[in-house]
Structure formats: C-alpha cells, structure tokens
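Researcher: Hi, I'm a grad student and pretty new to this. My advisor asked me to get structures for two proteins we've been looking at. I'm not sure of the right format, so I'll just paste the first sequence and hope you can take it from there.
Model: That works fine. Here's the first sequence with its structure tokens right after it:
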Amino acid sequence: METRLLGGSGFNVPVLSFGTATFGGAGKFFSAWGSSDVDEASRLVDICLEAGANLFDTADVYSRGQSEEILGQAIEGRRDKVLISTKATFRMSDEPNDVGSSRFHLLRSVESSLRRLKTDYIDIYTLHGFDAKTPVEETLRALDDLIQSGKVRYIACSNFSGWHLMKSLAVSDRYGLARYAAHQAYYSLVSREYEWELMPLALDQNVGTIVWSPMSAGRLSGKFRRDNPMPSDSRIAQGGGEGPEMPKEQFYDLIDVMSEVAAEAGKTVAQVALNWVLQRPTVSSIIIGARNEDQLRQNLEAVGWNLTPEQMAKLDTASEREMIYPYWHQSNFHERNPFPTKHYK
C-alpha cells in the first residue's frame, strides 16, 4: 500500500483509509449506510490490515457512538498496528454544551471517544464542521492542549470553507499553535467544487486532503445507468446519500466514459472513480467504505496502478461542471491565477 505525507507534517498515511460509518447502523440515516456488528467489523479490519490500509476513520456522531465502540472492539489487542481518525463538533445530545468546537465540548468529546475506542490517544482528531459561534482562538488552543497532553497526535478539519480554513491557519501561525495537517473534504468525479478554492488553498498552505465519499455515496459504483436507474431501495434513495446531484444526462454520459476507461484499464467503474481521485493534487488519502468483504476487496484494488494521462483527461472533460462566481472569472486569468487541475500540470 502506497503511503503519503499528511500535508506539511511528517506523518505518513496509507492512500486508502477505511471509513467505519457502516459500523452500528443506528437510526434511519446510518442504517442506510450499513449495520456491521463487531464480528463483521473485525473481519473487515483484518482485510484492511492485510492490504496495508491501516487508517480507520470514524466519528462520535456515527450511530451516536456505536461506530467508535465497534471499532474499538474490532482493533482490541492490535492498537499498535492501526491509525485512528475520529471527529467531533456535531450535536450528540440535547444538552446545550454538547455541540460545537468550544473547549468544553472538545475536551469532553475527546474523553468520550477515547473511552469508546479503548485507547489513550487519537492519531488524527478532526473537527467535523466549522463552529462560527466559538472563537477560532478558543478552538485551536483546546486542540493544541490536546496535542501537548498526548491525547491527540495531529489535528484536521472537515467541510470548512476557504476562509474558515485560512483564518484558522493564520491564527495557528500567529500564536504558535498546532496547524491543521489535513482537510477532510467531499470530492469525486460527480462533485468537483473542491478544486475551485479549497484545493488551491491546500496547495498554497501545504494542507493534505483526506477525501470522503470519493464514489459520491455509491453513485459512481457503475450500477446506475440509463438502462438501470437508481432503485428505490438504494442507499441514496433511502436518505443515506449526501451532496448535490449532477444533471442526469451528464451523469449518464460520465458513466459511459467511465465504462469505456474501465474496459481499457481492465478495472471496474468504481475502481476508476477511486483511482481518478488518488491522482488529484493535494490528496493524501481517500476514505473507502464497504458493507461486506466483497465490496471492500474490490475497493482495495483501486491502487497499485494508474489511469493514463489520456484517460484522466477523458474523465476530466466528462465530469467538468460550470463554475460559479468568482471562480469562472478567475479561471479566465490562468496566466497569473492558475487552477490546480488545469494549469499546474
């Protein structure tokens, strides 16, 4: 398994990480993702470790703590062989302070996650979203304290806007606090908005990207085509999908191109989707998920080979979306304001 540095840190992570949102399956939203119990989770962890994909991503909000608990049991006795990434910020109860990125909530959330995961440290601790009601200085000082205490190794953020991330990095630099090593972001052939501002920012500030939903909640699995539309019992139709839809005709055109490329490469459509993301600028790791062993083994085959430049170009063209302002205007000034995937090559 190839490894890459996480942003500007000296920390190596595997290019494929395993997402454990399918562990537990509590509630309508997460049950649509999956409902792996401890036995199944342990087997999936075994397969990942055999392949070298030893970074496991979870969050306190996934099935209200069940995902962390099941992961903790699945890795018991082999903590030294795995890397753990978990997240906090979203609401966990009706208590007024059980939400956000305040010092109070983060310190309590870390202790709860450590207990559920049965460990005394977290390798990557990620803010699940931006908390506009808590001063950035308060959040970053709390995270820096967690690093100093040894409970957290590296910090990351997720789903931030460009100004959210840049303000946070500036505050870290001003006060000598720990910087976000990575941004966990939504990015795929179906949704390329990440390239407009967040990717140039990540390049400029040396922030790694950990990609979530690289197959857009299964839209890019290859199962859904013009002659085989999405069924009513799919994860997305059941409310388990996130992100905007690509215009239907463009989506089917994209799947046609992906199918052509997959045939040329001798791979599946899903593997093409994952490999495309792995070749994009700033990407340190992508999070793959699986409901069962067969899905996991197929996803793990997305590495060890590369799409050709010509195949990448085909996919780029088929998936390109119209930019919103100011990005369409900036893209016309590429001589001095290059966009990463078009003019940094």
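Researcher: Oh nice, that was easy. Here's the second one.
Model: And its structure:
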Amino acid sequence: MIDSLLFIALPYLAIFVGVFGSIYRIRTAPMTYSSLSSQFLESKGLMWGSLPWHIGITVILLAHFIAFLAPGFWQSMISHQLALAVVESAGLGLSFLCLIGLIVLAVRRMTSARIQAVTSVMDLVVIVLLLLQVGLGVATAVHCKWGSSWCSGTTTPYLWSIITFQPDMSYIVDLPLLAKAHIVGAWLFIFVIPFSRLIHMFAVPVEYLFRPPQNVVWTNANHCNVASQSFVKEEARRHFLRAFCGIAFGGFLLSIGTFRNVFSFFFGPRLGRKEETELMELRLSRLESTVGQRKLELERQASNFILVGKLADLSPDDGKYFIDYKMQPAIAFRGRDDLPLLISAKCTHLGCTVGNKVDDKGRILCPCHVSFFDINTGEPNAEAPAKAPLPHLGWVIMDEHGKVLVSRDASGKTEGVLQPQSRASAQVFISKGQEAKA
C-alpha cells in the first residue's frame, strides 16, 4: 500500500501539480515567476555557491536524461569497464560539487541579514529538499555502486511505465531504501515547483534576442562616450546571436535526413501488415508464456511437496537450480553431512540470480555487483554491497514409495536418519511451510 502511494499515486500527483500549477501561475501571476536574484544584495558568496551547484547539477541532469531517453545507447556506452568507472567517478565527483555549492548557498542565506530579509519559508523548504535529494544521490552512489549500470533495468523502465500510463513499480520494489528515497525526493521536487522560485527555470528570455535595442541618453559627455561604446558592443552581440541562431536552424533543416534514424529510434518505424502480424504473434507468445507460468504457480501452490532432484545427483561444488513455492530461484548442494543444503539464489542486494559454482572458500558469487555468499551460513562478505544473508530452505528426503526418511525445517532442525542402503534411491523435496529461514 505504501509503495503504491509513493511510486504510483505520488508521481501522477506531482506531474499534474507541477505542469498545470506552473501554467496557472505563469498565466495568472506572470510577475512572480522570476528567480528574484539576490546578487545585488551579496555577490561573493553567491559566486562560490552558485557556480559549483549549476555546473554539477547541469551535467548530472544531462546524464539522467540520456539514460532515460536513450537507454540502449547508455547501456552500450557503459558496457566497457573503463567507461563505467569513469561515469561512476565523474557522477560521484559532480554530486559532491553540487552538495558543496548547496551548502555554501544555504550558509549564505542563513548568515546574510540582507538575504534573510527576502527569504521566504518556501525558499527554506526548497533548500532543505535539495540538500536531502543531493545527499541521497551521494549516499546512493557510495552504498549502491554501479547505479549507472543497473538503472537501465530498474528506474528507466519504471519512469517509462509512469509516462505511458502503465505504472509498474515492480522494477524498483527491490531497490535499496536509499534509491527509493531518492526517487521519492525527485517527485517531491517536481511537486513544489509551482509554489517556489524553481518555476523560474521556465522563464527563458528568448525574446531578448529579438527585442529592439534600448537607447539610453546621457547628458554627461563622459557618459555619452561610454554609453555609445556599450551600445555598439551590445548591437554587435545581438547581431552575432541572430546570425548564430540562423546558421544553427539552417544546419538543423539540412540535417533532418541525416537524423532520420534518430527520429525512428524515438517514434518507431511504420509497420506493414507482415510486421504487425509478427508483432501480434510475439505478444501472443508472451501471453501464453505468462499463462503457463501462472498455471505452474497454481500447481505448485496446490502441491505439498516439490521435487528438487535425487540426493545422489547433488554436488558439494556445483549446485542445482530449482524454483521454490514463491517462484523464486534456489540452489541445491550436498552439504558437509552428506545431506541436502538448499539456499536461495536471489541476491539480497538487488535480486540478481547468484551463481551455482562454489569457490575454494565455500562461497557463491552474485555477478551483478560482486557479492560473495557463504553457502553454509548464507552470510555475504564484508565488502559486498549486499548486507543481508541468503536464506536457507527446509527440505525432506523420501524413498521411491513416498515415505519421508529425513526432514529439516527452515530453522535447521533435522529429524530422522538416512540409512546407507536408502541413499541411492532417495529423492529431495521442498515442502510447503518450510520455504525459507528468516
């Protein structure tokens, strides 16, 4: 319920208020959506705070937009280990740059009497919100490493599902709490835009490039000379900007054919009858696969036992994958006591499937973010991004007639003794109610 409110209801509320609230304020109170610059009141602190803040946040937002609008390009770019390391390092450095700039701006607003006089409650709310959001971004980058890699499979499809009005929070439900808080902070940021000075981001003074020049007349001779020189410089700058815009627009028109593939990437090609038929067949096969999976899930829920395999086939070094009652992957090994050892294969960090090969230290590896788990205790290594252990599963051993020979519950309590003559034909099952150890 809480997840639905935070990741489905809140995004649509924030987008609605952010868009229509901004339009309403601009139309009804057009003189209130400027930035109300405080540079005339204090400029030195503003320079040391505003410059690093704007540099850092501009590059970070640009990277976020690229990962969102072109996930395929982004994933191919960071598929190289060096590129991924550069992106992660640059992102962390820019995040600290933003945080430093925000702290300087916050201290400036709190210590300058002149700026305090023009500071509203909403200004303080925005500063606190920005500090929390940037701080959460830094914490996410530090504690949830390689976010630029796993965001393409989590936050990007989640945002697209929101925009296409097919909300699906399953992409982010397993994310760490820091990443979830960072997402909620972004929606709150959009929500407060119409009520704060943040709305000035929509006030781009494009008309300044085309308005008639202002002629200031001075009666003092020295001022006349200075004003004349300034007027000439301003007129030259205005002509340069007009020429630049004209050249840029002409180059855009000439390159439309070249960028046809780019437009096709975003809007998609027009499908013929054959392509539409193939697309419908693909969708039908996916629906049939989903139906088959649901039937299997129902069958498993109706069964008291699920076969894992023969005890003689289990290996202490090469685990056997199987699916438990929750339709989650798990691995079966032969333990030190020659009895089954069943452990969850879903990484407790972001839900990746861990490997089934045991190294010389008795550990299995999650290849997504490099976490090692001890198969006997389930505990991750100290440096791993995963902090919680992999849970073990209970099991029962039956003979060929369905008689229970040995059982072990989720807490590790074992009942019964397996005789040597029964080992060759013994089969391992998981039973309902013993899915995992808490």
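Researcher: Is there anything I should tell my advisor about the second?
Model: You could mention this: The first strand starts at residue 305 and ends at 310.
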